[in-house]
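Notes, p. 3: input format for complexes.
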Amino acid sequence: MKILVTGGLGFIGSHTVVELQQEGFEVVIIDNLSHSSLDVLDGIKAITDIKPQFQKLDLKIKKDVKTFFKKYNDLAGVIHFAAKKAVGESIKEPLMYYENNISTLVYVLQELSELNQQNFIFSSSCTVYGQADILPITENEAIKVAESPYGNTKQIGEEIIRDTCKVNKKLNSIALRYFNPIGAHPTAQIGELPIGVPQNLVPYITQTALGIREQLSVFGNDYKTLDGTCVRDYIHVVDVAKAHVVALKRLLDNKNDYDFEVFNLGTGKGSSVLDVIESFEKVSGKKLKYQIMDRREGDVTSIYAETTKANDVLGWKAELTLDDAMASAWKWEQKIRNK
Ligand code: UFG
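Output follows (339 residues plus UFG):
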């Protein structure tokens, strides 16, 4: 079965391509290479022995999307990762985010509606919840006003799919709301490749440990949490990738209960920034240089997933630990720096 993975050279996309190929799916990747590199194809091949088909394509160019879907009219499903994801950048450049994340989704759904099989997996985010009143957070929690244009694109994205499913009875879709995906493939053949100064915690930690960054700034230790630092649900990227294969099979086997379903992808366990540092120090045997700084604007205090729906209905559960994730992130960072 042929599956299209948009943004398939990115962090979560590339790990999902590996899992799909290991499950026997034929994968076609589209990526515009704006935040990724062709070398990722070699990493995927090193793990799976298969080089996926690849087409450099910018989904913002509607006619190119049309041409692509005319050529690949035998797709069994689409997993749509291609999107921008930096919260701060989205606040500075909202229109770029709306064009990039929304118009591309619309074009893909328009072309998908021409195909026989219309199975669609969407990358959503726990950002749709904002600061939750009750933790762990369930999929039924009300959606809050988005805190950034990025977050808004995920909310709007879900709405676009929901509205489309109402009128297009052939379309079946699952939105996966990721909590904080971290880590790398255990082989260290693929991983996260942040451009410039990392904005996210884990690549900042691994770069600091190698001396690329002087020290980690811990953004605030006066939150109402056990140790005062923010709490997140860090989930190994390989677990996230596997969930996509499970979700896709659910659609392919017509096992879905509704034409549009939403699942949280988390571990159900909250870890503070200091917990993550401690885990890193344990698995690497290195002491991390860090300093407590002011709070970062826009951070929620605490968020972690209620995973019962994903466990029971989707039949998926995160298997790997925070230590596994930190060890793999560290192995990857050392590999890409040739250390
Ligand atoms: N943090 C630091 N120092 C850093 C970087 C991060 O202390 O240098 C802290 C943050 O304050 C936060 C935690 O580490 O408490 C995690 O921060 P990340 O930037 O790694 O992740 P976020 O939880 O802010 O963001 C993630 C995704 C977004 C998504 C958001 C939803 O990266 O795409 O969750 O909450 F929108």
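The pocket of UFG is lined by residues 85, 87, 125-127, 151, 180, 199-201, 204, 216-219, 230, 232, 273, 296, 299 (CB under 6 Å).
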